[in-house]
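Internal ticket - ligand job 463, zinc ion:
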Amino acid sequence: MNKCIGFVIVMVLAQSVLLAQDVLPCGNVLSKALLSSQYEQYETLVEQAYQDAASSQVEFRDGDTLIIPVVIHVIHNTPQQNISDELIQGQLDVLNEDFLRTNADAALTRDIFLDVAGTPNIQFALASIDPDGNATDGITRTETTVESFINIDISLILEAFAVCGFDVDCIAEYLGDTGLDLDLMKSSATGGVDPWDVNSYLNIWVCNLSLDVGTGPTPFILGFAYPPVGAPNFPTEGLPENYWEKDGVVIHWEAFGKDNPNAGLLAGTNDSGRTCTHEVGHYLGLRHIWGDGDCTMDDGLTDTPSAGSNSQSQEAGSVPTCQSLHTKDSCVDDMLPDMIENYMDYSIESCQNMFTVEQSNLMRAMLEGPRAGLLNGGLTNTNEEHVVQQHIKIPSLINNTLAITGLSDNHAVYLFDMQGNLVLSRQAVSGDEISVSHLASGQYVVRVVKGQTLAGVGRTFKL
Ligand SMILES: [Zn+2]
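stdout (C-alpha cells):
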C-alpha cells in the first residue's frame, strides 16, 4: 500500500472498475501533472531547484540539527476527523524519529544498505508563535461543511491513469482542462483554512480526502506535497499567482499520526505515520526512488538503487510482506535489490525505515536554499517590534550581495557568524544592497529589526 492515490480504491473497486494491474500513482504525480498542464514552466522550476540542491556543496550539511516549525491545520466535518492533540504529537514523534534515524526499526535496514543509510538530522516542532506574534500550540482547528476535499470525477482520473500510467505529460494532457483542483483545503473561501506564512512554517493540512465510490467513503489520496521551487520572489514566470498559498503538505485524516484509531481500511498498512514522513520528504525535495518510470528513469541520486517500479501491490487486495519484497529487483543491472526500506518507495509502512545519505544531504541543501525561511520559524518573540532572522550561506548569495526589499521604513540589519559574533551591522531601506564579499565562506544569521523582508539578489528570502 502506498501514500497516495487509489490503492484502497484498487482494493474496493477491483472487481468492477479497475483491473488489478492498473497501478495508480501518488497524489504528487497528479498535482504535478495538473500544474504542468496549466503552467508551462512548472517542471523546469522544480528541476532547477532540485539540481541546485543536488549540486550544492556539502560543507555546511553536517552541522546542527535543523529545526522546522510546523503548524497542523485540522479541518473536520465530523467529530472523528477532529483528531486529538495526542495523535498530532504522535505524528511529530514519528517525523522526528525518522528524520533523526532514531526510529526503532532502523535496525531492520538490510546490511546491504547500511553504508548508504543517512541521517537527515532534521527535527520538527509545533510552532510556538503564530504569524501575528502570539503564542500558539501550533494547531488550528476548523469545522467545515465540506464532506470531502476530493471533488473530482473519479472515472476521469482512473481513465487517465489507465491510459498514461505514470507519464506526467500524458496525464497533464488528459486532465489539463478539466479544472481539477486538489487544493481546496488551503483556502477559507473553499471550506478550508488559509496557510500561515509558507516561508516560515511547514503547513500540514489534515482533512478528508475520501471519495464515495458507491461502497461508502474510501480514501482516495493519502497525501501530497509541493516540492521546493525556489524562494518567494524567485523568478517564477509560469507559476500561478497564488502558488505560494498552496505550499505545504496535505494528509488524509485516517492516514495521519501513529496508531491512528480511525485508520479504517488503512489499518495495518498506513497507520504508523509514514505517509507524513513520505510527503515531508517530497516537501523537502525528494523524489520517488523509482523515478516515476521504468529502469531508464531515476530519482537523480546515486545511492538509491535503480528501481523500475514502486513496491506497491500490483494485485488488488494483496499486500506483499516485507520479506517477500526483499527479493524484488526490478532493475538487475545495478546488482542491488530494490530499496523497499526507503520512505520514498510505496512499500507498506512497516517495511520502511530509512533515507539515504544523498537524500539526507539533498533535504538539508533545500533547507539552505528554497526552504531556508523555515530554519528560524517565523517571527522571534522579543521585545523588539518585528524582529526576524534568517540563516544564509555565503557565498551562495548571488554576487555576494544582500538586497533589501519590502521594508516600509528604515531598519537595522545585523549579520552574525555561527559563533554569535556580530560581523556586520547597518541601517538599511528598501533598495539597498549590502556587500558581504569581504566575509569568509560559511553560514551566517541575518537579523532584521522592524523589517519584513530581506532578500539575496537572485535568491530572495522572505523573513
Ligand atoms: Zn509520493
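Auto-summary: The CA atoms of residues 342 and 354 lie 5 Å apart. Residues 7-366 form a domain with the Collagenase (Catalytic Domain) fold (CATH 3.40.390.10).
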